[in-house]
Amino acid sequence: MPELPEVESLAEFLKERAVGRTVLAVDVVAVQALKTFDPPVTALGGLTVTGVARHGKFLDLDCDGLHLVVHLARAGWLRWRDDLSGAKPVRPGKGPLAARVRFAPGDDGLAPGFELTEAGTQKRLAVYVTRDPREVPGVAALGPDPLDPSFTVDTLRRIVSGSRMQIKGLLRDQKVVAGIGNAYSDEVLHAARMSPFKIAGTLTDAQVADLHEAVVATLREAVERARGLAAKDLKAEKKSGLRVHNRAGQPCDVCGDTIREVSFSDSALQYCPTCQTGGKPLADRRLSRLLK
C-alpha cells in the first residue's frame, strides 16, 4: 500500500511533470473508482494543472481551482507515460487500469499523462473531482500530518493520552495520524523499540518522546530516499528500505535476532523480539492475550 513517503514522492514527481500542462481528458475505466458526480469528470478537460499536494495518503491535483483527488488504496499505483498519443482507447473490463489522465501535447509533440492501476480483486482505488479537497470525506477526517511542524511531542502526547488502543492500530488510524499504514507503523515501532501491542495510554513521557522521534525520523528518511526517483522505481525503493516489515524469518539489522510475524485475517505485522518485546515472541492475538 502506498503510504505517506510514497505519496509524497508521487506528488513531487507530478509537480515536476504535470504542473503547467493542460488536461486533455480524464478517462475513467473502472466506474466504481469515481466517487463524485458534481462537478463531472469531464469538467477537467481544458484546465491547467496549477499545483500538486498531498493530504495523508491522498494525491491532489489542482486544475485551475478544480481538484482531482486520488486515493490509491491498498493495491493502487500511478504510472507515468511520456506519450499517450498512441494509447489504445480505454474500455471497461477486468484489467488493472482504473483511470487515465491525458495531457495536451507539448512543444515536443508528445502527449504525456498517467494511468491509475489497481491489482487484485478488491477494488478500492478512489477518484474524486471536487472544488475543495476537504469535501472528500477521507481528507476532511484526517488527523495531523506527522511531517508538519505542528506535529510535536505534545501533539502526540495528547493523541495517546487515555487511549486504550494498541499503539500499532493507533498509528494506522488515519483519523488520529495521517499517512502511516501497515508498513511504516512496523518500521516506526521497531525504531522506537516498542511492542506493537502496547496500549497507547500507558506510554510514559519518555516513551512518547522516543515514539515521536521515531515517527518523524522514519518518515523523513523514507521521503529522502525516494526523492527524485521516477514513479516506477518507488515500490522497489520502499521495499529495500524496510528493516522489519515483510522480513519475517530474516535477521534484524540491529541485533541479529530473527524477525517474527503475527498474522491477522487480512494483514500481518512484523517485529523484532529482542528490540521490541524483551525477547518474548508475540502470540497470535486471536489465540492469546496481547502483551501490555
From TrEMBL:
It catalyses: Hydrolysis of DNA containing ring-opened 7-methylguanine residues, releasing 2,6-diamino-4-hydroxy-5-(N-methyl)formamidopyrimidine. Signal peptide: none annotated. Residues 243-277 form the FPG-type domain. Keywords: DNA damage, DNA repair, DNA-binding, Glycosidase, Hydrolase, Lyase, Metal-binding, Multifunctional enzyme, Zinc, Zinc-finger. CDD domains: BaFpgNei_N_1. Residues 2-93 form the Formamidopyrimidine-DNA glycosylase catalytic domain. Belongs to the FPG family. Its cofactor is Zn(2+). This is Formamidopyrimidine-DNA glycosylase. InterPro entries: FPG_cat (IPR012319), FPG_N (IPR035937), H2TH_FPG (IPR015886), Ribosomal_uS13-like_H2TH (IPR010979), Znf_DNA_glyclase/AP_lyase (IPR000214), Znf_FPG/IleRS (IPR010663). One of its GO terms (molecular function) is zinc ion binding. It comes from Nonomuraea pusilla. It comes from the Bacteria. GO terms for biological process: base-excision repair.
